[in-house]
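Teaching assistant's notes for section 4

Start the section by putting this record on the projector. Ask students to predict, before seeing the second block, whether Nucleic acid-binding protein will look compact or extended. Collect guesses on the board.
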Amino acid sequence: MSTSNLLSKLSASLQEFVRTAARDNAAFGNADQESAELSEWLSKVSSLKISNSADLKHLDETLSSKTYLVGTSPTVADISLYGTLHASVAKLSPPKTYAYPSIIRYFDHLQNLLSVRSLHTFPAVSFDFENAPKIERLAEAPKEKKKDKPAKEATQSIPTSASSPAPTAPPVVPLPSEAKPANSDPVNSDQKAGKKEKKEKPVKKDALAPANNNKSKGGAPPPATSDSGDPLPSMIDLRVGKIVQVARHPDADGLYVEQIDIGEETGPRTVVSGLVNYIPIEQMQDRTIIVVANLKPANMRGIKSFAMVLCASSKEGKDGGIEFVEPPPGSKPGERVFFEGEKYQDALPLPQLNPKKKIWEAIQPSFTTLQNRDAAWVDAATGSVHRIITKDGVCAPRSLVGASLS
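Reveal the predicted structure now:
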C-alpha cells in the first residue's frame, strides 16, 4: 500500500507532520502484512475519540504490552497516534495523568524520539514520574493446554541443538534424539508407554558431550518449544555478536546495514539498524555487541534484517545518547547471553518470537540499566532484578545509567 493511501485517513496538518517525522526511519511498513496492520491502526487513530474515557481506557490497556503499535520500531501509526494525543495529554495533570500509565509511558517515549523532537512541532510535555503510584500488573491466567498424544509430546520435547553451560548452574539436558513415538495399538499401549517413559529420562551430561555438534560455534542454547503462558524474558534469544562489516543503507539516510557474526556456520547475519544519527560508522566496525536473535525477520527499506542490535538509550531520550550494550571483555561471537536467577538462567529461548504473541513488546519496557550501569530486566510484578549476563560476567553500556534497552 502506498504512503499516500496509508495517511489519507488523517487530517492534512497531521499528514504533513507524520511524513516529515517519519523520513529516513523505515516507518512506512516493512512487509505486506505490516502495511495491513498500519492501515488498520491509522483507521483506529483517525476515529479515536480523545474525550471518551472508555476509548482512552481501552487504548491504555492495549499499550500496556506494546513499545510500538506495529513491529519493533516506530512507524507512521505511532507518530500519528502521538500527534493525535498531544493536545489532550498536555492538558492532563495528576491524578488524571496516573489514570492512563501506559499511554503516558508510550507518549513520553515517542516524544523523545529524535525524528519527533527535532521538528519542534509539538512542545515537550513533562511528567512527574517520581511521584507516580506503583502499577500493579496482574498476570493473565494460563491458557489450558490441549492434551497431546504421547508420541507428539516425545517429538516436541527434543531440542534442535545443544546448549552451552551457564556460569552458575548446569544447562537443561536435552532428551535423547532417538526417542520413538509410542505404538497406537490399544492392546500394547500401556506396555509401550512404560518403555517410552523409561527412555525419556534425562541422560547424563557426559553421555551427550561427544555428540555436541550444534550449528552455533559459540554454543548458543537449544530453543524452547512453547510460547504458551505469560511472556518471560528467557524466551528472548540474546547472543554475543561481532560486527564484521558495516555500510550505510543505500535507500535510507538514517540506517546502517551490518554483517554480524553470531557464531553460526551459515555465516554472519544481515542486520539493519537505525543508528546513523547516534553512533559514527567508524565506531561500528569490529564492535562486539549483543543481538536479539529470534525476532521475526523484517524488511527495512528493501533489505531484510535478521536480528536486532541491543542498545541503551539515555533516560533523557535518544538525544541524550545511545550506546551498545556490550558483553564482558573476551566474549566470543555466538556465546549465550541470559538472565540472572535460577528461574531464567537455564531456560531456553524460543526459536523465533511469534509477532502475534507480543512477547518482545511485553518484556522490553522493563529492560534498563542499574546505577552501576549493569543491564537488567526488572520484573514489574515483583520488583526483582535480573541482570543480563554471560558465563564471564555482566553486560553493560559504557556510561548510561537508568537507560532503556531496545
